[in-house]
Amino acid sequence: MSRPPSPHVLILGGTTEARRLAADLAARPGVRVTTSLAGRVTRPGTLAGEVRTGGFGGPEGLAAWLRERRVDALVDATHPFAGRMTSNAAQAAAVTGTPAVFLRRPGWQAGPGDDWHPAASLTEAAGLLPHLGDRVFLTTGRLGLAAFAHLSALHFLVRSVEPPEPPRPPDIRVLTARGPFTVADETALLREHRIDVLVTKDSGGAATAAKLTAARDLALPVVVVRRPPLPDGVSAEPDVRAVLERLEGLGLTGP
Ligand code: NAP
């Protein structure tokens, strides 16, 4: 089968890195780039290249899409906690023989002065909270608040890009905001709301790391939810530059 004239790269997106990757690839002559979004955010902003929105229907649906749209390379640039999509991508790439590159920004590392409490899941994080404080800054996203809904004795300040829906804890204050955030602003926020414990996913990256520095400066404990593991046999690139080098190595895009 002859390859279509323009190599087609499908990016599984929803992250800053995916946006940067799309912009870089779309600017290269002769490359066709499509970004796929789950459709969770109502205003995702403009993206370079083509955009499609919504689930594919599991690994089989994604495999069918790869075949039908003649995708030459798949880049999983989803968030480190989008474990199901990453698993689907690995399966669909394997069954269709599509070259796949996985981008996973490095996780955060605790340093001197940090008081971090690792948790394997949101449920485990909720179990730790009553031992650590009673005014919680919860930054794990608007989905998954159900894990904290039974903690009626604790006050929650929840920050998310869009307002969370029930079930959610009864004593809650919601802040809708999108990063990046500065250390000064995060410190002021923690002080203003008299927060005594922070909960975060180990998302990694600079855009939302300031809260960790602010928590360290204020000597607050931080519950850090661990990432889901990568699928067996999958290795990941740490940043956009490394992904571009891999795509260049596949001969699909010029430097
Ligand atoms: P997930 O649990 O891994 O995925 C659940 C299902 O959503 C997938 O099986 C797939 O449906 C669909 N899906 C996920 N990402 C998609 C994409 N880029 N394009 C098309 N369909 C997608 O994912 P999630 O944690 O709900 O995250 C959803 C999206 O939000 C991801 O794109 C991710 O990059 C972004 N995001 C997630 C987080 C987080 O903390 N989880 C944070 C920031 C951004 P089908 O099986 O039907 O294909």
Task: Explain this structure.
By secondary structure, this protein is α/β, with parallel strands linked by helices. The chain has 2 domains: 8-105 and 229-249, Rossmann fold, CATH 3.40.50.720; 115-225, Rossmann fold. It has helices at residues 16-26, 58-68, 83-96, 122-128, 183-192, 210-217, 240-249, and strands at 8-12, 32-37, 50-53, 73-76, 100-102, 115-119, 135-138, 155-160, 172-176, 197-201, 221-225. It has a 6-stranded parallel sheet. Helix 1 links the parallel strand 1 (8-12) and strand 2. The radius of gyration is 20 Å and the shape is elongated. The model has no long low-confidence stretch (mean pLDDT 95).
Bound molecules: NADP nicotinamide-adenine-dinucleotide phosphate
Task: Give the count of helical stretches.
Answer: 7
Uncertain segments? none
- The CATH class designation of the largest domain is Alpha Beta
**SSE ordering:** EHEEHEHEEHEEEHEHEH
Helix content: 25-40%
The CATH superfamily of the largest domain appears as: NAD(P)-binding Rossmann-like Domain
Mean model confidence by pLDDT: 95
- Topology-level CATH name of the largest domain: Rossmann fold
Large-scale geometry:
elongated
Question: Which structural class is indicated by helix and strand composition?
Answer: alpha/beta
- Quote the distance from N terminus to C terminus: 26 Å
Strand content: 15-25%
Widest sheet, order of strands = 6-11-10-7-8-9
